[in-house]
Each structure stands twice: as structure tokens, then as C-alpha cells.
Design a protein that fits this description.
This protein is mainly alpha-helical. Among the domains are: 74 residues, no CATH class; 70 residues, Serine Threonine Protein Phosphatase 5, Tetratricopeptide repeat, CATH 1.25.40. The longest helix has 40 residues. The protein is elongated and about 100 Å long.
């Protein structure tokens, strides 16, 4: 306090200066002018003006000194207040800083909670606590934090709206998330925060497949803060709307803004690949605009989009076709292929299509198989009781390694005609693909009884019998197959089984016959 008193002392008019001028100390310039009697040795107006100017200068200096003294007093008072902060709180802040440096999230949460319990008006620590809980997905704890934070302040902190939106989004309550992010934007935060939350709102729309709103929010994000990355994201949004020209314009702009941007480098090759397929896609766009419920057109465009490497766009079309025609096996397979390509294997499994879907060398389902499925779908749409069409479709599905769907078609055919050897044989093969050998053998027995002149049925029955260690039965079945139509695979199967039951001479004979029939190398 000695220093404060000395500063206050400086703010007063210096008595020594007054004495040297032959004056008595006064409070202001105005006081000088109001004095009725001046000392006798003040002779003339000239002397008076000199004294008056002197006092004006002294008053100005005093005013500046008072302002300085007040500022120093305020600063020292703040330092004194900080010094009076409880020791426990100081220690908590030190520990919290160390936890943040170590990125120890559980410790950050614990220390932040203890800090705001002592200092409930500490907005920065509330923010740290909420952000860490959101990142750690401690959603129930975050909700309690936001409620307590809100109660601690008379006026709602804008950040709470932002955090509530993030909480709702994590819980997939998209309407709630959109409401709170819009409320946060209404508080007029910095433009960077506005742009970020418009990005978040675009993700809300993406999760709900609201593609027009998705693109609109992307545009607002660009308007708030234009960057190469945001241009790319809006270009991708335009793809979902098939707004090709706008998409490519944004991509070109993004590349011009920053060709080194990670989003630009990732997406530019994808756009270049898609561009090669636009001459096929655009005419289909025009036809679908006139016939939006044409399943065949939708599936044709979905196929082109899959080949172009755009599975999400293909999902839109294939899903639309599947909703229009749920019995279409082509629509189901194309939708599943797109889902698998998009990394959504769980959604594909809901269609009873697994990740082992057979692909060609180009990594896509065979085009001819898809077209044949489409033809059989059309036959069954006209006549759902066409057992032969069901068996034929089951065979294609089995070749695609989709045994569950194939068995469903085989069973549907058997429900129409259980005397169909082809349906029994198909069911046997589908069950074998599902590792149900015992049930498969039952159907194989029935198939050979219904059609004893089919070598393939006897061969397959023999394979099933060998798998179940019925080697004698397997030899008999392979013998029937060979008698109908001799083949290397049947001879090889029979040789194996003959050796297992000690018929070495017969096995050697089969081996010699195999060598005779085997192509010369």
C-alpha cells in the first residue's frame, strides 16, 4: 500500500512549485480566477497570466497521474483477488492442465467436474468438460453436465446449444440436432463456427437421405467460409442430386483453390473416372425423369453407377427399384452389391446376401447373371407358380454363392411340385452349400429316385455319401453315374472310395482308366 499512497501523492499539485511561484495550493484553475485578493507582489496582468498557465499545466499532469493511479490500483486489486483464490482450486487447475497435456480424458473429466463444483462460473472449464465427454461419448454424463452448466448462468451460454446438438446427433436424434445447431447459429458466432455447424447440418441431412437439404446446407457452409474442402463436399452433394455440371464446376474450383488439399487429392480421380460414364448416365437420367417408376431403367442406371465406382448413387437407384418390386431378385442382388461396395455389409445381410457374393475379375457381379435374373423375375411376375423359373433362378443364386436365397427358391418350387427332380436336386445342392449335409443327402436320394437317368444327380449323391463316410453307397452311386455318362470326376471319386473299403483291384482299374481318359500333357 505504500506504493499506492505514493502514486496518489503524485496526483496532488506540488506544494514546492506553488511556493516557488509565490502561490498557495488550490484545487483547480477555476479557483484561481475566483480569488478576490491576489498577493501584493503580483504586479500586472503579465504575471497573472504566467501563474494561470502554470496552474493549467499542473492540473493536466495531476489528471493523468490520477488515471494512472486508478489503473494500477485496479491491476493490483485483481492480483490480490487471484491471490485469494482457494489453494484447492489452484491445485485443481494445475492438475487439469497436466491432464490436458497428457490427453488423459478420464482425468480431464474428473478434474473439470471438481473445478466447476468450486467455481461454477468458470465457462472455460465447463466447455472443456463438455467437449471431453462428447469426444469420449459419455452421452449421459454430457447431458447432466449441460443441465448443470445452464443452471449456473442466468443467461444461456451459446456453447450449450452447440453441445446439445452434438449430443442429439450422437444419439441419432437428427431433428433435435438440427434444432440446436440452428439455434447456435442464430447467436451469431464467428464465421468459422457458423461454417462448421452448417457442415454438421449437412451431415444431419445426409443421415436422413435429405439430399436437397444436404446440398443447401453445403452451400451455406461455403458462403460462410469458402475452402477447397468445402467445395469438394458440395460437389459430392451435387452428385447425389445428379447435378453433374454444378458438381464438376465445384470440383474444378476446389482444385484451383488448393490442389494439395487432401479432399481434392482423394476425390479428383473419382470424378475423372465417373466422367467417362456420363455419356451413358445422362440419357438414362432423361428417360427416368419421364418414367421414374421404371424398375428396369433404375437397375440399368444402378449398374452403370456401380461400374463407375459410385456405390452410394447405385444404392439410391437399386433401393428405389427394390421398393417398387420387392420380389425382384435382380434388384436385391444389385442393391446388395452396392451396399457391400459401400462397406455396408450389415445392410446387405438384411437382404440375406452375404459378403461371399461371387464377383468376376472386374470385381463386379457377372452382367449376364444379372440379366438372366431379370428375365426370370419377369417370368415369375407374370406367373408366380412357375416352378421351372424358380429352380432356374435358384441355380443362378447358388452360382453367386447365395445359398440361403437359392434354397428359398428351391423350396418354393417344391411347394408347387414336390415331384420335381430338378427342384429336389437344387435343394440338395443349396443345403450342401449351407453345410447341412444330412438334409442335402435326403433330397439327393429323392432326386435320383425321381430321375434315375441323370448322371449328375448320381454323382452328387455319391459325393454326399462319401462325406458321410458311406463309402459303399458312394461307390454304388458313382457306378450309376459312370454307367450313364463316364467322367473323370466320377471315376476319381469311385477310386477314392474303393481304396477306403479295401477294393484295391477295382481302384487300380479305375486309376488306369483315368490315365487313359486324361488329356495328354
Amino acid at each position: 500500500m505504500d506504493r499506492l499512497e505514493s502514486l496518489a501523492h503524485l496526483a496532488r499539485a506540488p506544494p514546492l512549485l506553488c511556493a516557488q511561484a509565490g502561490l498557495q495550493p488550490v484545487r483547480s484553475v477555476q479557483a484561481v480566477s475566483q480569488r478576490e485578493d491576489l498577493p501584493g507582489h503580483w504586479q500586472g496582468a503579465k504575471t497573472f497570466r504566467k501563474c494561470l498557465n502554470l496552474w493549467i499545466a499542473i492540473s493536466k499532469i495531476a489528471s493523468h497521474l490520477r488515471t494512472f493511479a486508478i489503473a494500477v490500483l485496479t491491476l493490483l486489486a485483481g492480483t490480490a483477488f487471484a491471490a485469494t483464490e482457494p489453494l484447492e482450486l489452484q491445485q485443481l487447475r494445475d492438475q487439469l492442465k497436466k491432464a490436458q497435456d497428457a490427453e488423459d480424458k478420464p482425468a480431464i473429466i474428473e478434474l473439470s467436474q471438481r473445478t466447476v463444483a468450486i467455481a461454477p462460473n468458470d465457462s472455460e472449464t465447463w466447455d472443456t468438460l463438455a467437449q471431453t465427454q462428447l469426444e469420449s461419448e459419455e452421452l449421459d454424463g454430457l447431458e447432466r453436465t449441460l443441465d448443470a452448466w445452464q443452471k449456473a448462468f442466468k443467461r444461456l451460454p451459446a456453447a450449450i446449444e452447440d453441445f446439445r446438438a452434438g449430443l442429439c446427433f450422437k444419439r441419432k436424434d437428427y431433428q433435435c440436432a438440427e434444432q440446436h445447431w440452428l439455434a447456435f447459429i442464430a447467436t451469431k458466432p464467428p464465421r468459422a463456427d457458423v461454417a462448421t455447424d452448417y457442415d454438421n447440418l449437412a451431415e444431419v441431412c445426409s443421415a436422413q437421405a435429405r439430399w436437397a437439404d444436404h446440398a443447401a446446407y453445403r452451400s451455406k457452409a461455403v458462403a460462410a467460409q469458402d475452402t477447397a474442402a468445402r467445395r469438394v463436399l458440395r460437389a459430392v452433394a451435387y452428385l447425389r442430386l445428379h447435378n453433374w455440371d454444378a458438381a464438376y464446376a465445384d470440383m474444378a474450383k476446389a482444385n484451383k483453390m488448393d490442389a494439395t488439399n487432401a479432399q481434392v487429392k482423394e476425390w479428383l480421380p473419382e470424378f475423372e473416372r465417373l466422367q467417362k460414364f456420363l455419356p451413358q448416365i445422362k440419357p438414362l437420367d432423361a428417360r427416368i425423369a419421364k418414367l421414374p417408376n421404371d424398375v428396369e431403367l433404375l437397375l440399368e442406371r444402378a449398374r452403370v453407377l456401380i461400374l463407375a465406382g459410385r456405390p452410394l448413387l447405385a444404392i439410391d437407384d437399386a433401393e428405389g427399384a427394390f421398393k417398387l418390386q420387392p420380389a425382384s431378385m435382380r434388384a436385391r442382388i444389385q442393391l446388395a452389391e452396392a451396399l457391400l461396395d459401400a462397406g455396408q455389409s450389415e445392410d446387405a445381410a438384411k437382404l440375406e446376401v452375404d459378403r461371399y457374393l461371387r464377383r468376376g475379375e472386374d470385381k463386379h457381379v457377372n452382367d449376364e447373371a444379372l440379366r438372366e435374373l431379370g428375365r426370370l423375375d419377369a417370368r415369375l411376375l407374370g406367373n408366380p407358380k412357375d416352378a421351372d423359373a424358380l429352380v432356374a433362378r435358384a441355380r443362378i443364386l447358388r452360382n453367386l454363392r447365395q445359398f440361403t436365397l437359392a434354397l428359398a427358391d428351391a423350396n418354393a418350387a417344391l411347394a408347387i411340385n414336390d415331384k420335381s427332380a430338378a427342384a429336389q436336386f437344387e435343394a440338395a445342392q443349396d443345403l450342401d452349400g449351407l453345410n447341412q449335409a444330412k438334409e442335402a443327402l435326403l433330397h439327393a436320394h429323392i432326386a435320383t429316385e425321381l430321375d434315375p437317368h441323370d448322371s449328375n444327380m448320381w454323382f452328387f449323391r455319391g459325393v454326399l455319401e462319401r462325406q458321410r463316410a458311406d463309402f459303399a453307397g458312394a461307390v454304388a452311386s458313382q457306378t450309376r453315374s459312370i454307367e450313364i455318362s463316364e467322367s473323370l470326376v466320377a471315376l476319381s471319386e469311385r477310386e477314392q472310395c474303393e481304396r477306403r473299403i479295401g477294393k484295391t483291384a477295382e481302384a487300380d482299374a479305375d486309376h488306369r482308366r483315368i490315365q487313359e481318359l486324361a488329356p495328354q500333357r
